[in-house]
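Priority: medium. Attachment 1 of 2:
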């Protein structure tokens, strides 16, 4: 594990029940990134960069209610019947839809994969106030990225034809955008970039290496980022590498927490 992630919980500052941060996040503003050629032309970049989890932070997650209903069993029974690793492997991009269907249940029973996908699609919706909040942040020119554990839903033939080279990852990302069920329905890309997804990186939150790759890709310091997620374990990992971290409860509380960090969000009817 990189040294940047080696912090103890004693270093955390508890600001309020749903908000933690390691070091003070820079106030909202901009920085100049000089060009690699050393000339005087610089590019303005507004800080902080906002990193959003998607499921149950921006979008309702249908897994806990709709999916058990689809299979006709309570969640407890579904978890007992389901293979314990198959969804994790799917979110990491290690298996495709066909393998998910074959291995979803421990006993190998068949199920309607297309029906499951339609169940997921039907259950996706913006959480109350989140579309308006994202719209406000995007209108204020904040740089916003998805940082999410999410699988690729796309034909298995395309998956099996790819190898993990740089060019094939670009193709994989292209396929992800074409077959992303959430994007197809809710058009999140109007407000953020689908930049950091577990199915592309081959890593899931709260793996610290995933967070460090995000910071490296963005080319900023961890304290230049604010990470928002509904899972405290994921927020804790962000804090441990030096990001600002907000544990999501609802759009109203998030707007207030962002305001506490110098990002004034005025969203009607939150």
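Attachment 2 of 2:
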């Amino acid at each position: 594990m990189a040294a940047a992630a080696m912090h103890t919980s004693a270093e955390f500052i508890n600001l309020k029940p749903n908000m933690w941060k390691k070091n003070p996040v820079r106030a909202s503003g901009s920085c100049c990134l000089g060009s690699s050629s050393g000339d005087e032309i610089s590019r303005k970049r507004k800080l902080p960069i906002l990193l959003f989890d998607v499921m149950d932070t921006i979008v309702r997650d249908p897994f806990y209610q709709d999916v058990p209903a689809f299979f006709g069993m309570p969640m407890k029974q579904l978890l007992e019947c389901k293979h314990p690793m198959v969804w994790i492997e799917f979110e990491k991009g290690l298996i495709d839809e066909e393998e998910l269907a074959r291995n979803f249940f421990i006993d190998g029973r068949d199920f309607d994969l297309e029906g499951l996908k339609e169940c997921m699609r039907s259950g996706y919706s913006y959480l109350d106030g989140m579309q308006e909040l994202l719209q406000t942040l995007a209108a204020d020119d904040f740089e916003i990225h998805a940082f999410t554990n999410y699988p690729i839903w796309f034909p298995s033939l395309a998956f099996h034809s790819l190898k993990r080279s740089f060019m094939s990852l670009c193709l994989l990302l292209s396929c992800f955008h074409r077959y992303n069920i959430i994007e197809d329905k809710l058009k999140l890309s109007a407000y953020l970039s689908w930049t950091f997804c577990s199915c592309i990186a081959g890593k899931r939150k709260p793996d610290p290496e995933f967070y460090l790759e995000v910071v490296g890709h963005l080319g900023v310091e961890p304290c230049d980022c604010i990470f928002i997620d509904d899972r405290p374990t994921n927020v804790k990992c962000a804090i441990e590498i030096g990001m600002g971290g907000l544990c999501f409860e609802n759009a109203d509380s998030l707007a207030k927490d962002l305001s506490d960090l110098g990002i004034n969000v005025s969203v009607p009817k939150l």
